[in-house]
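Hello Y.,

Per our agreement to keep a running log of every chain we model this quarter, I'm adding this entry. I've kept the format consistent with earlier entries: sequence first, then predicted structure.
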Amino acid sequence: MKVSPKKALGQHFLTDPSICYDIAHALSKLDEVKTIVEVGPGTGALTKELIPLNKDLQLFEVDLESVAYLNEFFPEGAFTVHTKDFLKVKLDEYIDGKFVLIGNYPYNISSQILFKAFDYKDLIPEVVGMFQKEVAERVASGPGTKKYGILSVLLQAFYDIEYLFTVGPEKFDPPPKVDSGVIRMVRNNVLELPCSLPFFIRTVKLAFNQRRKTLRNSLKSLEGDVPETFAQRRPEQMSVGDFIELAAHFEELAIDKTKDDE
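Predicted structure for the entry above:
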């Protein structure tokens, strides 16, 4: 019986093989891993280009009609399909060792997928894929731009990020109402920060949640004063390194206060 997968919520299927080829071959860290993880393969347009890369290919797809299509039209043993929500699984229970992450990611959960990659950054040396253009630009943007924000800073602390190319709506079925962008994120050499990760995340989120205010005002809930070097800046004027320095400063003040209170 032939199956025809429905259009899953938030998913737009690529129909241009050359785009799929370019995304698959944007992977640059295959020599470091034995596994490729693809999120949201749909009807397998990108999957088709990943199979010849000769890696253990693990797919996460929750749409059962898409899974049936993949199993019918692709060779047995070409990949393993997990009918699990990628955002909810513990990836180290499904994947052995390090892996690269790739996909034409569902727009409605794309930011959550990036935060998931952030959580598993020590197992993921590279992330490649298609996002809504606005999200892709936000991830790759640097200081001084309106798109620079929480996602930019957190990811760029641990990944070198490159915006590769833009893809128009006509390359999809159904066509989205926006352009798409392909990015590549390659793990940098930062193993740990000079502050705890939760404190770094808290500092960045506090700053950007009131991005129109200067840091002196937006970070009032943290212990102590903002260093004069940063006090009059707004968050989009801070580099990733600046945020790391600022978070380390506040965490040290918090630790000192705890010692004084004992």
